[in-house]
Amino acid sequence: MDIKRAKEEIKDSIEAYLLKDAYGEYEIPVMRQRPIFLLGAPGIGKTQIMEQVARECGIGLVAYTITHHTRQSAIGLPLISKNEYGGKAYSVTEYTMSEIIASVYKKIEETGLSEGILFIDEINCVSETLAPAMLQFLQYKTFGNHEVPKGWVIVAAGNPPEYNKSVREFDVVTMDRVKKIEVEADFSVWKEYAYHQGIHPAVISYLTNRQNYFYKMEHTVDGSFFATPRGWEDLSRLIQVYEKLGKKVDRDVVGSYIQFPEIAKDFANYLELYYRYEADYQVEQVMEGKIPEILLKKISHASFDEKLSVISLLLARVTEVFRKVFGQEAYVSMLFEKLKQYKDVLGQKKEAVEAFREILEETCEEQKEKERAKLLTKTEKIVYRKGIEKLELYLKVLEEGQISDGENAFEKIRGLFAEERGAYEKLEESAGQKLEYAFDFMEIAFGASQEMTIFITELNMNAYSVKFLQEYQCDRYYQYNKQLVFDEIDRNIRNRIERVEMPL
Prior knowledge:
Layout: H1 3-17, E1 36-40, H2 46-57, E2 60-65, H3 71-75, E3 78-85, E4 88-95, H4 99-111, E5 116-121, H5 131-140, E6 142-143, E7 146-147, E8 152-158, H6 172-175, E9 179-183, H7 187-197, H8 201-209, E10 216-220, E11 223-227, H9 229-245, H10 251-255, H11 261-280, H12 283-286, H13 293-300, H14 304-346, H15 352-372, H16 378-400, H17 406-445, H18 450-461, H19 463-471, H20 475-499
Parallel strand pairs: 1-8, 1-9, 2-5, 5-8
Antiparallel strand pairs: 3-4, 6-7, 10-11
Domain ATPase dynein-related AAA: 36-176
Protein name: Dynein-related subfamily AAA family protein
Organism: Faecalimonas umbilicata
């Protein structure tokens, strides 16, 4: 299955494992909660989805790469204790607590989350001395003499033998005690993720045209050559930072992430062209509604790859502003919730300034708790920080104005909040206008062509544009999207008819 489907299956399994009955007992007994074993090629996102699952389920996460551990750190160090059996004293070998199990208890103590995921990566690549301990871990949920705490679901990940010479095949007894999920690289699924994570548009457009380069691995006499989703994402982050620093990403830089010389060379050339198209087609001006005639003439004679690059540049600009709208909406929504909370508190006859200070302190503590538990995405962290800064400003206004009356204080804060709401509405309006300008260019340059179909299809794959278009009325989007849906239905029907054998 693809990584998106695997993520949903893991979430469903965790929900099932952690469901309790009326007496607080798990519906599926702990011994029947099979460890989940993810098996898939390196670099396709197995580790990353565990962080997402933990955040979305609101549970803890402790992650280890087991190949970094010795037998002693995994199961604990031996010690001698004295026990009495049948009236005689004996020396007995016991073990200190496993570092891994201890980390789970530490996470519980730090975050207050009693349930979570214990994720062990590269579990089928352990050393010969550690292999028996890993089999015991999967079969009995113990490291040495110590059990994994109840409420903590075991997820393990490994690579198939063809990708790693150190892989050990698990026997039937072990495999019959795990829930095995085989994961495969799927570009269409990764592309949705890429838009959501803000992967560089040059990477997205390049891989859209060369999907066979998304994940490629070859083993030759000269060594192993590979390109992986992890490599593309890490390269994307570097490109974005290099752009801010004014540095160039050349073939050598690309090759340090995409370790497949042919692909690295091809992408480096594409990236150079991408920057040239950005300048030649004056994308910033187009997004302001200025479309010089010379640009239309130029694109009419452009190659298909060049046209796709220009479409990608337009999509990148609208996505950027959609992402800002999304962040601003979350920020304004947070302030609105705090404003409602403030009104409720004032209804309890509390002094205005002190009541607002309490709300600010609760918000700060809420942020710290979620940060400790690693339950916040990057966007959510920014929303909290901006929100707390604004709440601190509101408190300062109340203190300096010495506004103690609850009704006056609330009206003052509501007036300040209205400014934030107004700024959000202006940003939303600006985003809508940029989308209209993008449609202006697409219609004049391409009309209702395959390029317009590509533009609409990409908007439909992008979580930020989908969310924006749920609120913003863009007639041309609905017009072209309706035609796209109709064409897709018609194509499916025709394909089905062609597959039916006609009677003689």
